[in-house]
């Protein structure tokens, strides 16, 4: 088993403003570990994580794949700084961009992303809550997902096909309430991407899934 | 640490700004040079993903003239060392990037580019 990245540099104050790795994060790490041989063997040249928060996931990926290009975005400026520090702490060279989803990279990264990661704000809330949480760049933006918990995820899903390289893979964290079969169906019918469940786990009240998508 | 590898991938994404929106122009910048681990396989694999002219022009603006105007077909160690330095070792810590088309200014703070747009600027 691979070690969880060292997060000992994050202070209590950091974790008041940035989502602290929890069961959903650890399930995503476990899914990446399931795919260890593929991820390492396919020699990805561009990895991109959307909403990297503490930076735990990309640091973990960096310890699987080794030296390559890692980009992370987050809408929360505190999260951007934490991601940068977590990369340093774990010897993974991460390029952090303060921004929404992949917007400033979409033009140039079209068909170039080999590993795309997204642990979205998936908790069903009111739609108003999402708007405020995102535009303020606060910690609430890490979980408030609006109607069905899918408001932000749906925007990202529409971008994935354009970003993935021919052999690229997209890993998504989802909750049972997000309608996992519906997400897989949407991706196939709207975007001709094939998806499957890599792992699922019950954690407290949450039934969590890790989905993996690639071109047909 | 906005390295030139990142700069080469960022474009203006403001509403209705769809042409001539790349590369962003550095302004009032502070540079730092930091050594990075040399990996020739990574560099060779990354070459086809670069917008070469944008990289060379930007490096020249920052005072580095080591890269040829055309991407060479045969790469030797000397070339890869220059490419490594330009892509991965030149860090922009502070300053800003301006869109050549709509003139939107994206600030760089503590090495992190702020690419957020206000609600009314989102396309």
From TrEMBL, chain A:
The similarity annotation says: Belongs to the eukaryotic/archaeal PrmC-related family.
Claim: Transmembrane helix is one of the keywords in the record: no
Methyltransferase small domain segment(s): 45-127
Q: Is Transferase one of the keywords?
A: yes
Q: Which InterPro entries match?
A: DNA_methylase_N6_adenine_CS (IPR002052), Euk-Arch_PrmC-MTase (IPR052190), PrmC-related (IPR004557), SAM-dependent_MTases_sf (IPR029063), Small_mtfrase_dom (IPR007848)
A cellular component term from Gene Ontology for this protein is:
eRF1 methyltransferase complex
Q: What is this protein called?
A: S-adenosyl-L-methionine-dependent methyltransferase
Q: Which GO terms describe its molecular function?
A: nucleic acid binding; protein methyltransferase activity; S-adenosylmethionine-dependent methyltransferase activity
Automatic annotation (TrEMBL), chain B:
Q: What molecular functions are annotated in GO for this chain? A: protein heterodimerization activity
Cite the Gene3D superfamilies for this sequence.
Answer: 2.20.25.10
The organism's superkingdom is given as Eukaryota
Give a GO biological-process term.
tRNA methylation
Similarity annotation: Belongs to the TRM112 family.
Q: How does it assemble?
A: Interacts with TRM9.
Protein name as catalogued = Multifunctional methyltransferase subunit TRM112-like protein
Please name the source species: Crepidotus variabilis
